[in-house]
From TrEMBL:
Keyword Transmembrane helix: yes
UniProt keyword Transmembrane, yes or no: yes
TM regions (residue ranges): 21-45
Record InterPro entries: ExbD
Subcellular location: Cell membrane
One BP annotation, GO: protein transport
GO CC term (a single one): plasma membrane
Keywords: Cell membrane, Membrane, Protein transport, Transmembrane, Transmembrane helix, Transport
Molecular functions (GO terms): transmembrane transporter activity
Highest taxon in the source lineage: Bacteria
Protein name according to UniProt: Biopolymer transporter ExbD
Length: 180
């Protein structure tokens, strides 16, 4: 007796609903994904002065003028600097450890004024702002470590310690209108 072998049917997975599942997953990820919106440079501006109020007088000694020209070169108080040298120069200007009469009298009187020209590359301008902010961050970190033994970022938000460090090194940055 000879037995005939039956042909086995190959096992197949029904793929008709795969397209529906893929479509539903696509919609799910589109709905649940957040898209970061570029908000620009976040700076807190002081309130505008009243029309009848004169701006406070500023000694030239306490003002660090920074110009970023159309070639992206940085001029600080009539001297050219590389981008990497800006932070160290600003820290020296703000702290004035040697009581140099050409540098700021005290850190709370120091003002950094940044001016650009219309053709200044945006990337250089942003890098310049990063250097200025980095100088203040380094100064605040140093003060926080000296007084409290922790970096400034480790202090509790709006704590008396954080406020004291902010008062020691307040960010006084002036963004001047570009030159024509």
């Amino acid at each position: 007796m000879l037995l005939k072998k039956r042909k086995r049917e190959s096992a197949e997975i029904n793929g008709s609903s795969m397209a529906d599942i893929a479509f539903l997953l696509l919609i799910f990820f589109l709905v649940t994904t957040t898209i970061n919106v570029d908000t620009g440079i976040g700076l807190v501006l002081p309130p505008p002065l009243e029309d009848d109020v004169e701006p406070p007088p500023i000694k030239e000694r306490n003002l660090m003028n920074i110009l970023v020209n159309q070639e992206g070169r940085i001029v600080m108080d009539e001297e050219f600097y590389q981008l990497g040298e800006v932070k160290a120069r600003l820290i020296e200007f703000i702290k004035n450890p040697t009581q140099d009469p050409n540098l700021a009298e005290t850190p709370d009187l120091a003002i950094v004024s940044i001016r650009t020209q219309r053709e200044t590359p945006y990337r250089i301008y942003v890098d310049m702002l990063d250097e200025v902010m980095g100088a203040y961050k380094d100064l605040r970190d140093e003060a926080s470590r000296a007084n409290y033994g922790v970096p400034y970022g480790a202090l509790t938000e709006d704590s008396p310690q954080q406020e004291q460090v902010k008062d020691m090194y307040p960010k006084k940055i002036s963004i001047a209108e570009p030159n024509e």
